[in-house]
Specification:
The protein is an alpha+beta fold. It has 6 helices and 10 strands, in the order αααβββββαααβββββ. The chain has a domain of 124 residues: Ribosomal Protein L22, Chain A.
Protein backbone atom coordinates (compact mmCIF):
# COMPACT_ATOMS: atom_id res chain seq x y z
CA UNK A 1 0.00 0.00 0.00
CA UNK A 2 0.99 3.59 -0.55
CA UNK A 3 2.95 5.20 2.30
CA UNK A 4 1.75 8.41 3.92
CA UNK A 5 0.25 10.31 0.98
CA UNK A 6 1.12 13.84 2.01
CA UNK A 7 4.70 12.91 2.87
CA UNK A 8 5.23 10.91 -0.31
CA UNK A 9 3.49 13.06 -2.97
CA UNK A 10 6.61 15.18 -3.59
CA UNK A 11 8.63 11.98 -4.11
CA UNK A 12 6.14 10.50 -6.57
CA UNK A 13 4.81 13.30 -8.74
CA UNK A 14 6.30 15.37 -11.53
CA UNK A 15 6.01 19.11 -10.73
CA UNK A 16 2.94 19.64 -12.93
CA UNK A 17 1.31 16.53 -11.40
CA UNK A 18 2.08 17.79 -7.91
CA UNK A 19 0.41 21.11 -8.67
CA UNK A 20 -2.66 19.35 -10.07
CA UNK A 21 -2.83 17.09 -7.00
CA UNK A 22 -2.65 20.04 -4.62
CA UNK A 23 -5.55 21.72 -6.40
CA UNK A 24 -7.90 18.75 -5.92
CA UNK A 25 -10.50 19.79 -3.36
CA UNK A 26 -11.84 16.34 -2.42
CA UNK A 27 -9.51 14.29 -0.20
CA UNK A 28 -10.77 10.94 -1.50
CA UNK A 29 -10.15 11.99 -5.10
CA UNK A 30 -6.67 13.27 -4.19
CA UNK A 31 -5.74 10.02 -2.45
CA UNK A 32 -7.02 7.75 -5.22
CA UNK A 33 -5.42 9.82 -7.98
CA UNK A 34 -2.04 9.77 -6.23
CA UNK A 35 -2.34 6.04 -5.57
CA UNK A 36 -3.03 5.45 -9.26
CA UNK A 37 0.01 7.50 -10.32
CA UNK A 38 2.21 5.67 -7.82
CA UNK A 39 1.04 2.27 -9.09
CA UNK A 40 1.53 3.26 -12.74
CA UNK A 41 5.04 4.61 -12.16
CA UNK A 42 6.05 1.47 -10.29
CA UNK A 43 5.07 -0.51 -13.39
CA UNK A 44 6.53 1.84 -16.00
CA UNK A 45 9.95 2.07 -14.29
CA UNK A 46 10.26 -1.67 -13.56
CA UNK A 47 13.02 -3.77 -15.20
CA UNK A 48 12.40 -4.28 -18.90
CA UNK A 49 9.93 -1.41 -19.17
CA UNK A 50 10.52 1.70 -21.34
CA UNK A 51 11.31 3.92 -18.33
CA UNK A 52 13.36 1.43 -16.35
CA UNK A 53 15.15 3.19 -13.52
CA UNK A 54 13.73 6.64 -14.25
CA UNK A 55 12.92 8.57 -11.04
CA UNK A 56 9.19 8.91 -10.43
CA UNK A 57 9.50 12.69 -10.26
CA UNK A 58 11.01 12.79 -13.78
CA UNK A 59 8.05 10.91 -15.28
CA UNK A 60 4.94 12.95 -16.10
CA UNK A 61 1.69 11.08 -16.67
CA UNK A 62 -0.85 13.35 -18.32
CA UNK A 63 -4.35 12.86 -19.71
CA UNK A 64 -5.47 13.29 -23.31
CA UNK A 65 -8.59 15.39 -23.93
CA UNK A 66 -10.72 12.22 -23.93
CA UNK A 67 -9.26 11.27 -20.53
CA UNK A 68 -6.82 8.48 -21.42
CA UNK A 69 -3.49 8.67 -19.53
CA UNK A 70 -0.16 8.79 -21.33
CA UNK A 71 3.47 9.55 -20.54
CA UNK A 72 4.44 13.05 -21.65
CA UNK A 73 6.59 13.03 -24.77
CA UNK A 74 6.20 9.30 -25.34
CA UNK A 75 2.70 8.66 -26.67
CA UNK A 76 4.09 6.15 -29.20
CA UNK A 77 5.84 4.08 -26.52
CA UNK A 78 2.62 2.26 -25.65
CA UNK A 79 -0.86 2.55 -24.20
CA UNK A 80 -1.40 3.06 -20.47
CA UNK A 81 -4.59 2.54 -18.47
CA UNK A 82 -5.08 3.26 -14.74
CA UNK A 83 -7.93 2.41 -12.37
CA UNK A 84 -8.55 2.74 -8.64
CA UNK A 85 -11.30 1.90 -6.18
CA UNK A 86 -11.53 2.01 -2.38
CA UNK A 87 -7.82 1.96 -1.59
CA UNK A 88 -6.86 -0.40 -4.41
CA UNK A 89 -5.22 0.65 -7.66
CA UNK A 90 -4.24 -1.19 -10.83
CA UNK A 91 -2.71 -0.29 -14.16
CA UNK A 92 -1.92 -1.97 -17.46
CA UNK A 93 0.53 -1.09 -20.20
CA UNK A 94 0.55 -2.37 -23.77
CA UNK A 95 3.93 -1.49 -25.31
CA UNK A 96 4.49 -0.16 -28.80
CA UNK A 97 1.88 1.01 -31.28
CA UNK A 98 0.16 -2.35 -31.73
CA UNK A 99 -3.06 -1.45 -29.95
CA UNK A 100 -4.82 -0.01 -26.94
CA UNK A 101 -5.64 -1.32 -23.48
CA UNK A 102 -8.27 -0.58 -20.85
CA UNK A 103 -8.38 -1.77 -17.24
CA UNK A 104 -11.08 -1.35 -14.63
CA UNK A 105 -11.41 -2.28 -10.98
CA UNK A 106 -14.67 -2.37 -9.03
CA UNK A 107 -15.66 -3.29 -5.49
CA UNK A 108 -18.28 -6.05 -5.50
CA UNK A 109 -21.37 -4.53 -3.89
CA UNK A 110 -25.17 -4.46 -4.33
CA UNK A 111 -26.54 -2.12 -6.97
CA UNK A 112 -30.14 -0.99 -7.30
CA UNK A 113 -32.42 -2.40 -9.97
CA UNK A 114 -32.77 1.08 -11.47
CA UNK A 115 -29.00 1.14 -12.10
CA UNK A 116 -29.22 -2.19 -13.93
CA UNK A 117 -32.14 -1.08 -16.09
CA UNK A 118 -30.56 2.29 -16.88
CA UNK A 119 -27.08 1.10 -17.88
CA UNK A 120 -27.48 -2.52 -19.01
CA UNK A 121 -28.89 -3.90 -22.24
CA UNK A 122 -32.17 -5.83 -22.01
CA UNK A 123 -30.33 -9.17 -22.18
CA UNK A 124 -27.82 -8.17 -19.50
CA UNK A 125 -30.56 -6.88 -17.21
CA UNK A 126 -32.66 -10.01 -17.64
CA UNK A 127 -29.73 -12.23 -16.69
CA UNK A 128 -28.70 -10.08 -13.73
CA UNK A 129 -32.22 -9.78 -12.32
CA UNK A 130 -32.72 -13.54 -12.55
CA UNK A 131 -30.12 -13.90 -9.78
CA UNK A 132 -30.19 -12.94 -6.12
CA UNK A 133 -27.81 -12.00 -3.34
CA UNK A 134 -24.06 -12.35 -3.85
CA UNK A 135 -24.47 -14.04 -7.23
CA UNK A 136 -26.29 -10.97 -8.57
CA UNK A 137 -23.81 -8.57 -6.95
CA UNK A 138 -20.87 -10.33 -8.60
CA UNK A 139 -22.48 -10.55 -12.03
CA UNK A 140 -23.64 -6.93 -12.04
CA UNK A 141 -20.19 -5.75 -10.96
CA UNK A 142 -18.55 -7.91 -13.63
CA UNK A 143 -20.79 -6.65 -16.44
CA UNK A 144 -20.35 -3.00 -15.46
CA UNK A 145 -16.60 -3.46 -14.96
CA UNK A 146 -16.17 -5.16 -18.33
CA UNK A 147 -18.07 -2.40 -20.13
CA UNK A 148 -15.77 0.22 -18.62
CA UNK A 149 -12.64 -1.71 -19.62
CA UNK A 150 -13.76 -1.98 -23.25
CA UNK A 151 -14.77 1.70 -23.36
CA UNK A 152 -11.33 2.63 -22.03
CA UNK A 153 -9.62 0.45 -24.66
CA UNK A 154 -11.75 2.26 -27.25
CA UNK A 155 -10.40 5.53 -25.76
CA UNK A 156 -13.96 6.71 -25.08
CA UNK A 157 -14.76 6.00 -21.45
CA UNK A 158 -18.29 6.71 -20.31
CA UNK A 159 -18.78 9.42 -22.92
CA UNK A 160 -20.20 6.55 -24.99
CA UNK A 161 -23.46 4.88 -23.91
CA UNK A 162 -22.66 1.83 -21.77
CA UNK A 163 -25.31 -0.11 -23.73
CA UNK A 164 -23.14 0.18 -26.84
CA UNK A 165 -21.49 -2.96 -25.48
CA UNK A 166 -23.32 -6.13 -24.48
CA UNK A 167 -21.37 -8.45 -22.21
CA UNK A 168 -22.08 -12.15 -22.79
CA UNK A 169 -21.91 -13.27 -19.17
CA UNK A 170 -23.80 -16.58 -19.17
CA UNK A 171 -21.73 -19.41 -17.79
CA UNK A 172 -18.84 -17.32 -16.47
CA UNK A 173 -16.55 -19.05 -14.02
CA UNK A 174 -15.40 -18.07 -10.54
CA UNK A 175 -12.67 -15.72 -11.69
CA UNK A 176 -9.97 -17.44 -9.65
CA UNK A 177 -7.56 -16.88 -12.55
CA UNK A 178 -7.81 -14.85 -15.74
CA UNK A 179 -10.84 -15.88 -17.77
CA UNK A 180 -11.80 -14.63 -21.20
CA UNK A 181 -15.14 -12.86 -21.62
CA UNK A 182 -17.16 -12.35 -24.78
CA UNK A 183 -19.04 -9.24 -25.74
CA UNK A 184 -20.99 -7.85 -28.66
CA UNK A 185 -20.43 -4.33 -29.94
CA UNK A 186 -23.70 -2.59 -30.75
CA UNK A 187 -21.99 0.31 -32.52
CA UNK A 188 -19.64 0.39 -35.48
CA UNK A 189 -16.27 1.96 -36.01
CA UNK A 190 -14.40 0.55 -33.01
CA UNK A 191 -11.77 -2.22 -32.90
CA UNK A 192 -12.52 -5.63 -31.47
CA UNK A 193 -11.06 -6.18 -28.00
CA UNK A 194 -9.96 -9.30 -26.23
CA UNK A 195 -11.55 -9.14 -22.81
CA UNK A 196 -10.43 -10.85 -19.59
CA UNK A 197 -11.52 -10.81 -15.96
CA UNK A 198 -10.56 -12.18 -12.56
CA UNK A 199 -11.42 -11.76 -8.88
CA UNK A 200 -8.99 -9.69 -6.85
CA UNK A 201 -10.15 -10.27 -3.27
CA UNK A 202 -13.36 -8.26 -2.84
CA UNK A 203 -12.83 -6.60 -6.22
CA UNK A 204 -13.43 -7.55 -9.83
CA UNK A 205 -10.63 -6.68 -12.27
CA UNK A 206 -11.23 -6.56 -16.02
CA UNK A 207 -8.79 -6.02 -18.84
CA UNK A 208 -9.58 -5.24 -22.50
CA UNK A 209 -7.08 -4.93 -25.34
CA UNK A 210 -7.55 -3.98 -28.96
CA UNK A 211 -4.45 -5.61 -30.39
CA UNK A 212 -3.30 -6.29 -33.94
CA UNK A 213 -1.09 -9.29 -33.15
CA UNK A 214 -1.97 -12.97 -33.23
CA UNK A 215 -1.28 -13.85 -29.61
CA UNK A 216 -2.57 -12.04 -26.56
CA UNK A 217 -3.22 -13.30 -23.07
CA UNK A 218 -3.82 -11.31 -19.92
CA UNK A 219 -0.34 -12.14 -18.63
CA UNK A 220 1.76 -11.94 -21.78
CA UNK A 221 2.03 -8.73 -23.80
CA UNK A 222 0.07 -6.69 -21.31
CA UNK A 223 2.08 -5.61 -18.29
CA UNK A 224 -0.10 -5.38 -15.20
CA UNK A 225 0.38 -4.14 -11.65
CA UNK A 226 -2.00 -4.03 -8.71
CA UNK A 227 -1.46 -2.40 -5.31
Amino acid sequence: MLPSLIDSAARILYPSELEKWRQMAVAKRRDEWLHGRWTAKRLLTAPGMPWEGVPFTALAIENAPEGAPYVRGAQSAGCLSITHSRGMAACAFLPGEAGTVGIDLEWVEPREEVFIRDFFTANEAELALSLEGEARDLLVTLIWNAKEAVLKAWQKGLRLDSRAIEIVAEGVGRGEDWEQLKYQARVEGFPHCRLFWRREGVFVLTLAAAFSGDELTAGSIIQLKTD
